[in-house]
Amino acid sequence: MIKATSSRRGYFIMCEYNFPDTIRKILSARKPKLIQDSRSYCKHAGVLIPLFKDDGVHKVLFTKRSYAVEYHKGQISFPGGSVDREDTSLEETALRETQEEIGLRREDIKILGRIDDTMTIESKFLVHPFVGLLPYPYNFTISEAEVEKLITVPLEIFHSGKSPDNSHLFESKGNVFSTLTYEYDNEIIRGATARMMQNFMDILCGQQS
Questions:
Q1: Is 0.70 surpassed by the pTM of this model?
Q2: Which of 20, 39, 103, 184 is least enclosed, having the fewest CB within 10 Å?
Q3: Whole-angstrom Cα distance, residue 33 to residue 38?
């Protein structure tokens, strides 16, 4: 059973019984927009956008980074990290880093597809995001050196999209930037993580070809 839910950016396809299949079909029908780095100027990272269903509600799992990590201290992010030489693919990077950070085993993740690449402003990472479905509830094991806590956010929070009411100014290295933000339960999701969620929702809403 599929029903369309109106949002400020159009119609988001909600599927009550085969939501993962709907996402897989939408993502497989398009080529993700990749950022070229032919001269290897950037640091590359693979991240996972983890989706799950909790008591009938579709949700997204985020991590709140610890203050011991090198980059993006205390920020809301997706599980993931830098590409290692041993990684056979960007997807492998996302799965390996997810398991290391939150104990979500790669064999328990169903990859549904890939969205567009993005760049971080502060750390200059070229981020390659993959969308995955995970079982829930799950016995997560958090790496305290990297992750302060896990945060779950209903997917519908991201339906409203970008508007003048959810932009945020922040300072980095003496420069002030305006970035898209989402706020939920007194936590602020901003920067590259917010842009990846907007990109994901735009794709599902048919706003990205």
A1: yes
A2: 39
A3: 15
